[in-house]
C-alpha cells in the first residue's frame, strides 16, 4: 500500500536512525546508549514510528526485542537510504593533483598572462603531470558571462561588481611604471614631469583608444602628451619601444617582465597615477570544491613568487582563494 504524504511527514531521519540501531542491537538500553539518548527518548521515537507505520515493529521477548515481519521487510531499504545519506555528507576526499588528469582553465588579460602564465604552467607540470593548463583571453567585460558558461575555472583581471552567485576576491593593487629603451630615448631615470610630458608615448588598447587616466593626470598639471602609436596587445610593445624614441606607461607586473626580457629601462612615473585593483573572480558553487580550490591556491602561490622575483612590492593574501 502506498504511504500517503501525511504519513511520510511524520517520519524524519532521527526515527529512521533509531529504527536502524534497534534492528542492530535488539535492545532498548544499548540502542539508546549508541544514539546518546535516554531510554524514554528512544521509546518515544519508537512509539512515533509505530504510529506512522501502523505496526508494532518490535516485540519484547525476554530482555530483547524481536522485529516483526514488517520491520524485517523494510530494514534493507532503510539501511540503503541511511548509507546513501552517509556517503553524500561524508567529507570530500582531499584533491590529489599528482594523480588527476584533465584541464585547468584560467582567464586572464594579456598583461597578467605575460607575468604569470609561464610560471603557473611550469609549476603545474611539476605537481600535476597529467594535467593541461589552458589560458583563455579574457577581460572584465566578458569575464562573468564566460565564467557562467564554464569557459574557465576563474578569471584574473580588474573585475566589476560581481553577481551574487560569484565571488570576487582581491589579489593586489596594480601600479603603473614607465618603460623605454634608454639608447633610443636618450634619457636616464628618474624622468622629470617635463621629460615625461614632452617625449613620444605609445599606449596599449585592445579597442584602439589613445586617451587614458594618464592624460587626465597630466591635464591636472597643465600638461599634454603626444601619443604616436597604439598597439592592441602588450606583447607588441617591447619591439615598438626598441624601434623608436618613445615611452610607455604599463602595469608594473608586465613592465618588469618586459625590462628583464628585452633590456628596457624602468622608472617611476613623475606624477601620481591611480592603481588598479586586480581581483580573482570565480563561481560561488566552486568555493569549497577541492580541485577548484587547489588550483586557485596554486595560482596565488605562483603569482606571489613571480611578483617577488620581478621586484614588485606587492603580495597576495592566500586567503583570497
UniProtKB/TrEMBL annotation:
The keyword Transcription is annotated on this UniProt entry: yes
Species classification: Bacteria, Pseudomonadati, Pseudomonadota, Alphaproteobacteria, Hyphomicrobiales
PROSITE patterns, A to Z: HTH_LYSR
Boundaries of every HTH lysR-type domain copy: 11-68
UniProt keyword Oxidoreductase, yes or no: no
Domain of life: Bacteria
GO function terms (MF aspect): DNA binding; DNA-binding transcription factor activity
This protein's name: DNA-binding transcriptional LysR family regulator
Entry keyword set: Activator, DNA-binding, Nodulation, Transcription, Transcription regulation
Pfam families for this protein: HTH_1 (PF00126), LysR_substrate (PF03466)
Family, per entry: Belongs to the LysR transcriptional regulatory family.
Record-linked InterPro entries: LysR-type_TF (IPR050389), LysR_HTH_N (IPR000847), LysR_subst-bd (IPR005119), WH-like_DNA-bd_sf (IPR036388), WH_DNA-bd_sf (IPR036390)
Amino acid at each position: 500500500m502506498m504511504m500517503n504524504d501525511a504519513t511520510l511527514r511524520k517520519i524524519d531521519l532521527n526515527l529512521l536512525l533509531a529504527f536502524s540501531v534497534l534492528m542492530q542491537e535488539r535492545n532498548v538500553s544499548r540502542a539508546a546508549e549508541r544514539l546518546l539518548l535516554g531510554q524514554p527518548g528512544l521509546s518515544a521515537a519508537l512509539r512515533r514510528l509505530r504510529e506512522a507505520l501502523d505496526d508494532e515493529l518490535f516485540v519484547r521477548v525476554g530482555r530483547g526485542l524481536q522485529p516483526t515481519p514488517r520491520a524485517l521487510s523494510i530494514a534493507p531499504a532503510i539501511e540503503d537510504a541511511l548509507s546513501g545519506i552517509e556517503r553524500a555528507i561524508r567529507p570530500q576526499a582531499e584533491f590529489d593533483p599528482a594523480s588527476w588528469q584533465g584541464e585547468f582553465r584560467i582567464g586572464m588579460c594579456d598583461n597578467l598572462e605575460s607575468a604569470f602564465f609561464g610560471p603557473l604552467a611550469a609549476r603545474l607540470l611539476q605537481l600535476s603531470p597529467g594535467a593541461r593548463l589552458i589560458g583563455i583571453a579574457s577581460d572584465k567585460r566578458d569575464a562573468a558571462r564566460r565564467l557562467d558558461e564554464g569557459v574557465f575555472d576563474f578569471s584574473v583581471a580588474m573585475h566589476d561588481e560581481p553577481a551574487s552567485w560569484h565571488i570576487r576576491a582581491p589579489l593586489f593593487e596594480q601600479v603603473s611604471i614607465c618603460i623605454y629603451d634608454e639608447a633610443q630615448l636618450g634619457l636616464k631615470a628618474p624622468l622629470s614631469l617635463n621629460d615625461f610630458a614632452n617625449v613620444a608615448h605609445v599606449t596599449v588598447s585592445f579597442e584602439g583608444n589613445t586617451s587614458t587616466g594618464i592624460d587626465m593626470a597630466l591635464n591636472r598639471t597643465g600638461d599634454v602628451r603626444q601619443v604616436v602609436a597604439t598597439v592592441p596587445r602588450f606583447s607588441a610593445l617591447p619591439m615598438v619601444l626598441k624601434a623608436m624614441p618613445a615611452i610607455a606607461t604599463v602595469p608594473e607586473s608586465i613592465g618588469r617582465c618586459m625590462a628583464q626580457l628585452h633590456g628596457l629601462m624602468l622608472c617611476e612615473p613623475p606624477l601620481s597615477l591611480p592603481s588598479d585593483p586586480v581581483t580573482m573572480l570565480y563561481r560561488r558553487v566552486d568555493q569549497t570544491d577541492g580541485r577548484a580550490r587547489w588550483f586557485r591556491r596554486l595560482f596565488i602561490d605562483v603569482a606571489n613568487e613571480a611578483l617577488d622575483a620581478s621586484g614588485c612590492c606587492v603580495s597576495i593574501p592566500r586567503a583570497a582563494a
